[in-house]
Description:
It is a single chain. By secondary structure, the protein is an alpha/beta fold. It has a single domain (21-229), classed as Rossmann fold. Helices cover 48% and strands 12% of the residues. It has helices at 33-46, 63-72, 83-95, 98-107, 117-127, 135-147, 163-176, 189-205, 222-229; strands at 21-26, 51-55, 110-114, 155-160, 211-215. The radius of gyration is 17 Å and the shape is globular. The chain starts with 20 loop residues before the first strand and ends with a helix.
Amino acid sequence: MLTPPGPPVGxxxxxxxxxxxxxxxxxxxxxxxxxxxxxxxxxLRAVGASVTTMAFxxxxxxxxxxxxxxxxxxxxxxxxxxxxxxxxxxxxDRRGAAAEIRDTLAGFDVVLLDRYVASNAxxxxxxxxxxxxxxxxxxxxxxxxxxxxxxxxDLHILLRVPPAVAASRAQHxxxxxxxxxxxxxxxxxxxxxxxxxxxxxxxxxxxxxxWHVVDGVEGVDTTALAARLR
Length: 230
């Protein structure tokens, strides 16, 4: 049986009340989430909002995230082939950041996350050829939200780009950044196609919170988006 989380507790053991907005940017590998995070951060700060950001997986900060990266590059045997095994590692990475997220929500107007729980739901569903109503999406929700007690987002922003465009960008990034080679998920074009479909379904269902879809090909008006968030 899943145990409901207790009251929010900060990383130093004190109870905190969230006053900021938790905004999550989601999208395919190569969609441009990092660029949008930077542009939206600057636009929000320009209108006087205090903003902080975090990206998942937290490579270099979390042992679970580092295990994910290693598995995606075919270390640890067949670990990457396990949908639920990889899903659990992603979830444990976020569980380790839960107190930090709550603390930052208490001190900032907006906390921007590059990937969050919906990323786990979308990719694991795509790997199992399920849709947003499938069993693994519900498993992710029960694990990360109910059991681990992760804060619910106030808003998801889906940065939508055609999978072919995202794949081309990911390939370019791998060529230009020596420390960012494509992993087994990024290299699977069929997986990316299925993942894009699940993301659209999650957005249509407003999974966990409201979703706002933006066009990642034409470019995002970050000033207008910042005004929407304010």
